[in-house]
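Hi Prof. W.,

I finally got the Murein L,D-transpeptidase prediction working! I wasn't sure whether to trim anything, so I left the full sequence exactly as given:
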Amino acid sequence: MTGLMWHARTVEADRASVVAGAPVAEVETAADRTVDADTADTARKSAKSTALARGKVPAVNQELARARWTNPTGGAQPDLSRYRNLSIDVSLARQRVYIKSNGETIYSMIVSTGMNDTTPHGSFTIGVRGDHFYNPEERMGADYWVRITGPYLFHSVPTNENAGQYLPDEGDKLGRPASHGCVRLSIADAKWFYDQIPSGTPVTIA
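And this is what came out:
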């Protein structure tokens, strides 16, 4: 009996030294690799969280954010010379501008209107336009401006004093109230609007 018991213990010990056909040393090595991989993954996640907490947005997210205020925001931009009875509706609640022909929307744009409801409400008509302005009091300018009424304009996201030198922090605000009353557009939308919207086109802001 003693010999049989010793043999049984030896067999059990041998079984314990093999896992799925791998020697104990190999199993431990595989386990170590798994732990190392988990540790590295945890470190990467921790580094990413730290970067985000410090305001360092990953480059891919920065590119996506920039694309939002540089590109057309409503898809393919129509050739407005092919349409009649144009009008413009500005939705303050939705932060959208709708270009319409005979009352039907043909293009919409994501915009930023005035903070604290400073964009004027009412009915207006498109006036004069220009390629760039700079306001030293606000230390910001913009490209492709089109007058709504008085000092209130449609224009690109803000620039510094130089045309084409856009301010990313301001561009990232597109889609929520951010201006002092003007209606900000993405760069591509502002250029298209500046080039194509006829003077005298009616504008409704509500």
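Residues 24-53 form the longest helix (30 residues). Does that look reasonable to you?

Thanks,
D.
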